[in-house]
Design brief:
The chain is an alpha/beta fold. The protein is built from 6 helices and 8 strands; from the N terminus they run αβββαββαβαββαα. The longest helix is centred in the C-terminal third of the chain and has 21 residues.
């Protein structure tokens, strides 16, 4: 102390290494309540997206699987905001064929299922991945405020499903025209058999002839 005290200077320094607080003690503290108009909530109770860490503390990359249909994506796209975040489009109707692939990717990625409102992602999570905590459903869907991605307005063009519907409408239209023009039954039968043959060929060859005529749009972020 100053002033030439006979007792000498007093050391008020504290070694922070000697102070330890157990995690259980912190979690047991009741931090909820209100301070004026400000509401306080413990961080442990706040909703958050879980992210794993490797032993070397490197953050595990995150993969968002967009479950929306192609037409929805053409209207509003989800684009990654971070280098360790990827966004992939797998419509919910195709998840059944990709369950094994998704589970394998969950070993290296934190998987987040994403849709417009969160209902489809919750259903997919409950039906296919209920036992896997590394695969999450994002409540609130694409409109949840998350730093990992941003929304980009698309051009609103058709998706594959809409082109398929137009194709079937065209087939029925041709058959209806032949009937209306009073073609004989033999000619109509030939046309119908031709359409059936094309469809069966695609089924057994696992190809899609329609995709050769559809204008493919490159989607940024996928």
């Amino acid at each position: 102390m100053s002033g030439g005290s006979e007792q000498g200077d007093i050391d008020f320094s504290i070694d922070l290494d000697d102070i330890s607080i157990a995690k259980e003690d912190i979690d047991s503290l009741d931090m909820s309540g209100e301070l004026g108009d400000v509401s306080v909530t413990p961080l442990s109770k706040a909703p958050e997206l879980k992210r794993r860490n490797h032993p070397n503390r490197v953050r595990v990359p995150r993969l968002y699987i967009d479950l929306r249909e192609e037409a929805e994506i053409q209207t509003m796209r989800v684009v990654s905001n971070r280098p360790d975040v990827e966004v992939l489009c797998i419509p919910s109707r195709h998840i059944f064929a990709n369950v094994g692939w998704i589970r394998a990717r969950a070993k290296a990625f934190d998987i987040c299922l994403l849709c417009r409102s969160g209902s489809r992602s919750s259903a997919v999570k409950a039906f296919y991945f209920a036992d896997d905590d590394t695969i999450q459903s994002i409540e609130g869907g694409i409109y949840r405020e998350v730093d990992d991605f941003k929304l980009v307005i698309g051009d609103g063009s058709y998706g594959m499903a809409q082109y398929m519907q137009l194709m079937f409408a065209g087939i029925l239209g041709v058959i209806f025209f032949l009937m209306y023009a009073k073609f004989n039954a033999t000619d109509i039968s030939v046309v119908v058999l031709l359409f059936i043959s094309l469809i069966l060929y695609q089924v057994f060859s696992r190809t899609c002839l329609l995709s050769r005529f559809i204008p493919m749009v490159r989607l940024a972020g996928y």
